[in-house]
Amino acid sequence: xxxxxxxxxxxxxxxxxxxxxxxxxxxxxxxxxxxxxxxxxxxxxxxxxxxxxxxxxxxxxxxxxxxxxxxxxxxxxxxxxxxxxxxxxxxxxxxxxxxxxxxxxxxxxxxxxxxxxxxxxxxxxxxxxxxxxxxxxxxxxxxxxxxxxxxxxxxxxxxxxxxxxxxxxxxxxxxxxxxxxxxxxxxxxxxxxxxxxxxxxxxxxxxxxxxxxxxxxxxxxxxxxxxxxxxxxxxxxxxxxxxxxxxxxxxxxxxxxxxxxxxxxxxxxxxxxxxxxxxxxxxxxxxxxxxxxxxxxxxxxxxxxxxxxxxxxxxxxxxxxxxxxxxxxxxxxxxxxxxxxxxxxxxxxxxxxxxxxxxxxxxxxxxxxxxxxxxxxxxxxxxxxxxxxxxxxxxxxxxxxxxxxxxxxxxxxxxxxxxxxxxxxxxxxxxxxxxxxxxxxxxxxxxxxxxxxxxxxxxxxxxxxxxxxxxxxxxxxxxxxxxxxxxxxxxxxxxxxxxxxxxxxxxxxxxxxxxxxxxxxxxxxxxxxxxxxxxxxxxxxxxxxxxxxxxxxxxxxxxxxxxxxxxxxxxxxxxxxxxxxxxxxxxxxxxxxxxxxxxxxxxxxxxxxxxxxxxxxxxxxxxxxxxxxxxxxxxxxxxxxxxxxxxxxx
Length: 650
Hints:
Layout: H1 15-37, E1 41-46, E2 49-53, H2 55-61, H3 65-68, H4 73-76, E3 92-99, E4 102-109, E5 120-127, H5 135-149, H6 153-167, E6 172-178, E7 185-191, E8 203-205, H7 206-211, H8 216-221, E9 225-227, E10 239-247, E11 250-259, H9 267-307, E12 311-316, E13 321-324, H10 326-332, H11 336-339, H12 353-364, E14 369-377, E15 383-394, E16 400-409, H13 411-431, H14 433-460, H15 466-492, E17 500-502, H16 504-514, H17 516-521, E18 524-530, E19 536-538, H18 540-556, E20 563-572, E21 575-582, H19 589-592, H20 612-622, E22 626-632, E23 636-644
Parallel strand pairs: 8-9, 18-20
Antiparallel strand pairs: 1-2, 1-5, 3-4, 4-5, 6-7, 6-11, 10-11, 12-13, 12-16, 14-15, 15-16, 17-19, 20-21, 21-23, 22-23
């Protein structure tokens, strides 16, 4: 019995092969699309005939792309020198031709034949005109645009590499960017196999250095080698050309263009175009590094301002805040983002805004203002005492665009000064305490005596007319005690920093009365020579402290037999001059030169702190004035206080 024949097995479809074929077809289509859109005029050859050409190639020849297919390459681009010897697979060929009378360079490369496949060649055309419509000019223009947009050396070298690939196909090239000062390599980009020495040795033809205005001595001084002929930096290259990237006598890098045996092009023909590329690239490198330096400097200055241990604020002409650093933000508790763009004056104490407005106006007119003290409002309430130096900020045209104010917080310092002044007043109060008892004793004796007399009169028969005079004297003595007590209390309590018009003559008279006990103890006489002067703007209690201190010191400086303390006041220019003089012992030069130093005193231990005159000098300075001393041993001393009618804005 015979077995039935089995039907032959059907061949199963090769799905993986089908998918691979689809992927290959897709890849081919993508390559064709890229080739068709390539900016370089190029064609693919099958043997010596054109298999396909891109749009750039067709436009360069002035025909449609399909009209190029099947035509011999030498027919489309006839060599100027006649026929050419077609290279073997793996070889290259270059010739010169003309397209409509326009010189062109034709570069051909044939890959090595493999596996019995046909040999496809790659043909590129570069027009040789300086005209703006040429491919080279368009590539250089595009390079300039890309260099201008570059934000790093990697961006720059990438743009430069793309331009070199399009302008010099079939060549090896190397881009080396260096530090202009040290010649240290900063960026390296190469197409080809570099020699190991390319990273460590930078060589340039001496003629090329001189041609671009580079100093041979300066280059050799930073380790660059100057040679007679260009040295190849690629393996297997036998011809080379190197051009510098130089601007303004500074070297920013080198471009090396090199040729393997049989490669298209030659150094002499490529050098003019390579120099154009180098000049464009050199400007791009310089500009990029200038931008990087400016960016670094800008960032550095911003960090410096932001983290400076000083109050820094910048306003524009509209007094809107442009800079508000951490120090002033910490002081006021106003956040930086909250302050930026806001008007500056609302952050200033209301009573100080007119003065601040005048300071800003002066600075916007180009005048710097120094040591301007004011008060800033704190977000949580309260005020901070600050001192600013202001300066105008000019724009590129020289016009003042804003004002920068740099200052320091004086709040703690002023509080310490106020406490020191207060303690100094209390110390002075203690020094005259003994005299106070005597000063109060006289009017109290009168009060008691007259009161006893009136009581006696009342008991024996009533009061008579002369008794009214006794009552008047009792009242005067009481008022005298009351006034003296009020002056002492006012002098001893801390003084508010309230600025007001002050009658300086009245202040000096009040100081003289308060110092009568000290004068009496020193057997001194008081002389007043107070001419009429205009009122000055100041803090009354602080000015009173100045003259109490000066009169007390003058009384203590009198000789054992007594003497005279003279207070004089007179107008001087736009201000007044107040003098406190004595005819006492005087001071030798070494003491006079140190009289305003803190803690310097010639008094015995326990009699003085050495802070009195230092505090006096500080008070006078805050009123915009000066104090000076003239003294000689045995002659006496004169302290002259000069005060303006209106303290200057700072």
